[in-house]
Amino acid sequence: MSAVALPERARVVVVGGGVIGASVAYHLAHLGWTDVVVLEQGTLSCGTTWHAAGLVGQLRASEAGTRLVRWSTELYARLEAETGLSTGYRVCGGLTLARTPERMVQLRRTAASAAAYDLDCELLTPAQAAERYPLIRSDDLEGAIWLPGDGRADPADLTQALARGARALGVRVHERVRVTGLRLEESGDRRRVTGVVTEEGEVGCEVVVNAAGQWAPLVGAMAGVDVPLHSAEHFYVVTDQVDGVHRDLPVLRDPDGYTYVKEEVGGLLVGGFEPEAKPWVAPEEIPDPFEFRLLDEDWEHFEVLMDSAIHRLPVLAETGIRKFYNGPESFTPDNQFLLGEAPECDGLFVAAGFNSVGIASAGGAGRALAEWVVGGEPTLDLTAVDIRRFPAVAANRSWLRSRVAEVLGLHYAVPWPNRELETGRPQRCSPLYERTRDLGAVMGSRNGWERPLVFAPPGVEPRLDYSWERPAWADWCDAEQRATRSAVAVFDQTSFSKYLVTGPDALATLQWVCTADVDVPVGRAVYTGMLDSSAGYQADVTVTRTGREEFLVVSSAATTRRDLDWLARHRVGAPAIVDVTSAYAVLGVMGPRSRELLSRLTQAALDDAAHPFGTSRVIDVGRTRLRATRITYVGELGWELYVPTEQAAVLHDELLAAGEDLGVVPAGYSAIEALRLEKGYRAFGRELTPETTPVEAGLLFACALSRPGDFLGRAAGEARGAGGPARRVVSLVAGDPDVWLWGGELVLRDGEPVGQVTSAAGGATVGASVGLALVGDRTSGTAAPAWCDAGSWEVDLAGERVPVTVSRRPPFDPDGDRLGRT
After folding, report:
1. Nearest-CA neighbor of 523 among 614, 588, 598?
2. What positions does the domain FAD dependent oxidoreductase central occupy (predicted)?
3. How open is the CA angle 236-241-244, to the nearest 5 degrees?
4. What are 480-517's pLDDT values in tens digits?
5. What is residue 5's three-state secondary structure?
6. pTM for the predicted model, two decimal places
């Protein structure tokens, strides 16, 4: 029972007293929101936090992710002086080893990313790695990287320090208080949290932060909120003291051996991420109480990690084991944590599922969420961790159990850029799934949707190969690109997100959230962005006016819940917003002979006069009545056909049969990616992010700055663009046709780092790797046109400088002549 009576009301209630909950409370208080209550069912840090390994590695896969961890390290470095409590934080450096050439390529790419993020990182030879860490065997290594800013922290001490810092500003922390329910208020079709029910009474509030760790799905369920995470067993041992081990021994990571090692009271803490992981129980099956508890030892399961560790650190063969730790940790379906306001319930925020990087992430994640709570929007790009990235089916317990086992097992696998997860598939299938698979499609998965990536030739096994070089399937993709450019291709794009916005307030809502003017005649499609109040991109969509008070909004497959939530939160009046994604299949018919193909199946006029670019009409094609929208994402004459799901298979067969003599081919998303990059078309989540404005993206043409009335983000966009963009999206083409770019490569101008490749693919038409990059002059803080158009440009390809041509215009058909080609 809580020693102090609970208050009747608080502005914010944080559920969970681990390091994440303590960090959120601390940062809320420092932002001036001091009326905060933290509720912990046990005592602080008693869940997952106390048995975390405490590694603090700074470099992450994205600039935003790296910045978030830097926020953590900056906080940990000063927290002891602020609170008087030790956090155990120590900067000792981090050493990551490579046993294979493939891993060494990854580490060279990692070093280039560090340069892009202005983070110290050094490539080492095996001998230099052994100098940094004399205990390792180095004769079988390819090399290593050294990150001097890496370190470690004591998880329990860190949590106590954060809690003390929060208390000093007025935050109230109540231990031994179990949350049993949430109070909700209904308003129209929205639900808002208004209070927390506990065994000790109720606390009314405006905001609840669900930081309950592996119990977070149970807390979410109290408000009908999906929290897609599942616990898995995580193992490490602590050895007896070892000669040569000292407090400043670097953190060692040997990912090819699945292991990590750090100093622990003169001994070594040895843990890892085994290839075949062990999911634990579902949240509702967690024993009660479960405070400061571990699971049973499993030496047989740990054997693969221990054998690998002994190989790398021979001294372990003669060192005793002091303690075996097997503690459950929360993992998500994509190995990224969950942050943000739940789309199902206003005022309910989630911070959970940290995939064994909770200590490194806690300081930054707590700050990011606190800023989101206080400001109503994130202050940096949190797209990769936003809880809205998952569909509802991702919370399925059976699916989660199989997926997290794979995700944990891949934690230290080589992070191939085209890696496709395998478990729990298929999950969401287009009506053309069987047909495209029978035609040789290699399937990928996006937001649960099965989608053709590329089609294997007849008699060839349809499979992906993973490589840093040009993959075998690139030849298949080239053939699809050439068919699209020279004849016609049919793409299954059913996974598009599709929403109807209807009613008297539909136009007002879309005029407010869209950058473009969507007050167009019925039957017109408009390309537009949706911005936040800081002019950063929140969505990239097309809006088709299908009636006086009806609009069809089409977006990417990955952003369904995000888009629907954004529309609902920013609507004007009370329009109906309906997800019709599953009601319609989409067939893209693209290429210079697309008009000829469709004309064989319809009596409708498709010429430029009757059906110009951006026109959308309901017509009969074959035996199907559908919506045909003349638009393209590949830079060719083409139509997107929106057909009732149950009729998609009939239409698909008719298209392929009618176009056989025209050279029609089925094509996949790998071809779309290459074709759109040749045309310089941007994509949300890569070129278009919450930290990119239309000026930086080069998309001012999609902003109706001259139309009367305001739109969300307009003022901020104009202010940020007044002095010129800080960075600019540009197209690039590799000078060497044998070079293969994947995206993420460091971009250099006159030898100096200036940005990163955001997307890349092999462009069959330009005959080389093609991509888009976000670049800017670090010295002047701008990306002026003259600066972009001059200089000597290169990309760092795993340590090799490769010349590229950079332009603010697309490398293929820059004037758009082919969009109206007959």
Report:
1. 614
2. 376-430
3. 110
4. 999 999 999 999 999 999 999 999 999 999 999 999 99
5. coil
6. 0.96
